[in-house]
Amino acid sequence: MKILLPTSTAGSLPKPSWLAEPEVLWSPWKLDGDQLVDGKKDALRISLHEQNHAGVDIVSDGEQTRQHFVTTFIEHLSGVDFENRKMVKIRNRYDASVPTVVGPVSREKPVFVEDAKFLRKQTTKPIKWALPGPMTMIDTLYDDHYQSREKLAWEFAKILNQEAKELEAAGVDIIQFDEPAFNVFFEDVNDWGIDCLERAIEGLKCETAVHICYGYGIKANTDWKKTLGSEWRQYEEVFPKLQKSNIDIISLECHNSRVPIELLALIRGKKVMVGAIDVATDRVETPEEVANTLRSALKYVDADKLYPCTNCGLAPLPRAVASGKLSALSQGAEIIRKELVT
Fold first, then answer.
1. Residue 310: band (very low, low, confident or very high) from pLDDT cuts 50, 70, 90
2. Which of 44, 169, 245, 276 is deepest in the core (most CB within 10 A)?
3. What are 9-31's pLDDT values in tens digits?
4. How would you class 305 by CB atoms within 10 Å of its CB: exposed for 0-12, middle for 13-18, buried for 19 or more?
5. Quick check: 95 and 42 in contact, CB under 8 A?
6. In CATH, what number is assigned to the domain containing residue 288?
7. Coil, strand, or helix at residue 193?
8. How far, in Å, CA of 44 to CA of 117, rounded?
9. How many CA atoms lie within 13 A of 107 on its CB side?
10. pLDDT tens across 217-250, in order?
11. Domain around 268
């Protein structure tokens, strides 16, 4: 990016009410057949327009063509039975009915590549595309075949690498892997989780990012956050190894969290997407509040490596709130740009 402090979103944005139920994750589509295909494209165009209107510098699809950031990718893979569902505890936090791995997993054809090509044709701005990370994928399934979290993660890493290479060829500038599980399973992350992520980015020439947050602003996550104490030091467990990894950008949650900002010193040298927008409240931040978060981060991140971002996806929020937050993000970043050049 040539612009200083380029802004972006962590991933999802609210869908139009005619496409899916607002403010609901996993909301069923309200359209089907050709109408659904066209509707998804229209929603992507709207999402892009709203990002442009808000002044977002690195744009995305807003995840308008997928119901969920993990399962929509998985449902296109073989070896996973969505009819055979089991109850599991996701990220040691809440119970969910999930599909079952019943055989070897593989990717028969590209999943998001056509959508990425469509987005690329709509804009000249840099585009970012989010994929689920291997560890977060295995945490959203019941494994009745490999019976090993690590083995399944390595298989997913290979599949993700196939998809990522085709997304890169489609013109994606940044490929982001969403790994909220990195904030939970620390021993596994350091033993093999980051290595799996390295396998997923193998051979890529575009920039790569890993998004590690405390989750959407849904009740299960906000309740969990209340148990984490006065300081959220989970990043401290994984940052040292991530700092040594080949991942270009680390995306994390900063605004209105209890993360000690000095933990950013552990990833000095990396580009950092600093979450400066709280996704767990309908209150729209002021530009100055965003600027304050960025000022704090600049004590530990060089200005040319700081990317203002949202804490997580905005899908569960009302559209007007999400738009307001994106505008505040851009305006807050502009405040800091002016301070840096004067």
1. very high
2. 276
3. 999 999 999 999 999 888 999 99
4. middle
5. no
6. 3.20.20.210
7. helix
8. 12
9. 19
10. 888 888 888 888 889 999 999 999 999 999 999 9
11. 33-341
For residue 110, give the nearest of 160, 37, 45 by alpha carbon: 160
Whether 5 is in a domain gets the answer no
Q: Dihedral sign, CA of 244, 249, 255, 257?
A: negative
Q: Is residue 22 part of a domain?
A: no
Q: ∠ CA(130), CA(40), CA(285), 5° rounding?
A: 55
Q: Which two tokens stand for residue 51?
A: 């990002």
As given in the structure block, the two tokens for residue 333 are 């970043």
Task: Please state the separation of Cα 166 from the chain's center in Å.
Answer: 19
Residue 283 structure tokens:
């209150």
- The residue type found at 106 is S
24 within domain boundaries: no
Structural contact between residues 221 and 280, judged by C-beta atoms closer than 8 angstroms: yes
Whether the Cβ atoms of residue 336 and residue 294 lie closer than 8 Å to each other = yes
What tokens were used for 334?
């502009």
DSSP structure class, residue 196: H
Tally the domains of the chain.
1
Q: Which amino acid is at 154?
A: W
In the block, residue with structure tokens 């009410």: 17
- Residues 194 and 147: beta-carbon distance below 8 Å: no
**CA distances in angstroms from 83 to 26, 38, 86, 100, 152, listed in the order given:** 16, 27, 10, 8, 20
Instruction: Report the chain's terminal Cα–Cα distance, integer Å.
Output: 21
Residue pointed to by tokens 């998004």: 211
